[in-house]
Fold this sequence. Notes:
The protein is an all-alpha fold.
Amino acid sequence: MGESALAKQPAYAGSVLAVVAAACVTGVLASQPLQVSIAGIEAVGALLLLGSGLVRRRGHHVVGGVSVVAGSGLICLSLGLSLVVPGRLFERIVLLGGVLAMAFVTLSVLPLKQSWARGFNGIGVGLFSCSLVFLAWISTPSSLQILLGVGLTIVTWDMARYAITLGEDVGRSARTYSVTGMHFSGSLGVGLTAGSVAAAGSRITLPAVPIAALALFLSAVLILLFVVFLGDTAWLSGREE
Length: 241
């Protein structure tokens, strides 16, 4: 990867906030303390991966390499643990969806390839959405879970998108803390407002709806969201780096 390509990678501040928000969503999807710990392990791994680039840019290549290996190992460990953690099968499926989603969000802000960044972000948020829907289907999540799950999923998507766009505009090494902080405040406000609406709506009693019809409707909505998320990527537009 050339020097100009490195300069156009996602901004660090927004990337970190996106990963932290994704870790919080994964924690919301967890149904027991051990599962929350798995989300924490993955968060540490993701932050190590992000930090490795910053460390290498300052000339500490050995430390950066160790961070890459350690971060990748922790993310793989969390994926493995999510498959074998004690609990009901459906709970493990929800957790696995969250862990995979966080991995994709992390890949979107590294990124492996710049033209894939928005696509990975869309996949990650799509997986979070599916996991939240599945969680609501198999259990009765609290209003706080719904508020945080929906709100922080929106924040995750928006902050990753913002980090990618800002990195393309001003470069990864630019100091973006203040503008990113302002954007994060607005994104958090919008996300929590949407989460509050979702939490309030979840308490409304609706007439009985056949499960198959409901599943088809939710699937159609999620597919539509997925296409919207990917609509600005090179995968659908045909753009190349």
